[in-house]
Write the structure tokens for this entry.
Amino acid sequence: MTITSWLKAQRVWAGRWLSLAVGLGLAGGLLLIAQAWFLAGVVDAVLFSGAGIVEVAPWLWAMLALFPLRAGLAWAAEQAAAEGALGVKRHLRDAFYERLRALGPVRLGGERSGELANTLTDGIEALEAYYARYLPAVALAASLPLAILVFLWPLDWLSGFILLGTAPLIPLFMILVGKGAERLNQRQWRRLARLSAHFLDVIQGLTTLKLFNASRREAEAVARISEEYRRSTMAVLRVAFLSSLTLEFFATVSIAVVAVAIGFRLFWGQMDFRHGFFVLLLAPEFYLPLRNLGSQYHARMAAIGAAERLIDVLQSQGPTRAVEGVPTPDLRQAPIRLLNVHYSYPGGRRALDGLTLAIHPGERIALVGASGAGKSTVFALLLGFIRPDGGQILVGERPLAELDADDLRRHLAWVPQRPRLFHGSLLDNIRLGSPDASPEQVRAAARLGGADAFIEPLPQGYQTQVGEGGHGLSGGEIRRVALARACLRDAPLVLLDEPTASLDAESEREVAAAVETLAVGRTLITIAHRLQTVRRADRILVLDRGRVVEAGPHDELIARDGPYHRLLADRAVLA
């Protein structure tokens, strides 16, 4: 499917608003024809019949009534078109956001957040003009000139032939010039996406840049890229202005030809003045929809440039979502089994190679192993972010692939190695996983997660505002907020990605105590690098190259003097 056909296919989400906008615009055009006829009648009566104000008063009153009526129709048409475009934008934003959710963090790991944010905001916003102005302009350009010809042809067939013969020149040259501008505009949107991504990366890494005294260099790079973008923008505008000049030139010449033809026939007495004046009034209005289409053609170019990246994301291949409505078995009673599971990342890197393991309800499991052993891949599979290339994952007796993804995740609580906090209050950040929780439930969860100890002494308590990414909190405090969030979720299966990594000794003890509280009555799976985290597990699984090479409790594995013992001895792995 081409970009143009994809854009047209999205029109269905505008409902009947765009059709209403076209209908109102056509009604306004018909009123314009009536207004021109009344005006021609008034001028003819006054100049050639000697009529006074009394005789032409009904015509003048009719013209006066048409002015507000046409203005009202024009306003209603704009409102209807804007409402239709809003419906399309609303649907595309929902679809784009849901697609990002479906793809998950593994698939989006190689994407630049600035580029995605630009597509979600400016990219979708750029489609508004396409649906609100360009598509109605196309419909009116096809219908309104024909309506004018219907009224004009019986009165002056020669002018009708002139208008009909010159009208195709305007869209022809519009397309010829617009093709070059379209290519430039698509290139321009790609530049804007790269600029947005680079700028966001610079802002997010500003602290690091200052530490290495590289902020001035990056500022110069941003200035250079911005200047290149300005120059390319001006190149696009030059082509767009050339298109407008071409359209105006052909429309003006065509109107002049009609005026000359009417003038000679009036001079020779071969045409009635009222008819000639009426045709002359309608000639500019005949070309007006075509000229308006030309002026709105840049909206089509902008939409094509913006939609290119949007389509790439919406059509990206991600994990197949299960059929809605298949419930997840009770994880407090149902075991989870991975049977001969294989998975390879794009590029051929094998992460899991025939992994087989069973996770029993209420069990505490620690996954250990060197970097690249497959620990994070196991989490990604359990969370539904990816699907195995081979083998099967069973929840109870039902394959995980058959479960509803959203329902499955309601049974899970995940605390990543770098928990994400958002700008807002601590109360809202803890309540993120359970939006309907009461403040009392949030406080109870914070006590279980160990966050209450540092939140209560704050002047504003749970209403204390934190910055994006938890700015204003220490690493240990962020972890405890994330653990409180997991406690509030009250999920039967909890996945922890090294909860004590990169913490000082005191914070590590506090987080470890919170983990102990969280583990009560739940199945807990932890990616572990620290001895304190590993020692308390019911079962330790040692992974190597995507397989379980050793399993058992800590004391038993130490006595074997096998892979686990060697990992403990390697302080670079288990620090």
User: Anything to note?
Assistant: The longest strand covers residues 350-359. Residues 53-107 form the longest helix (55 residues). The chain has two domains: 3-314, 336-569. Residues 343 and 389 are 5 Å apart (CA to CA).
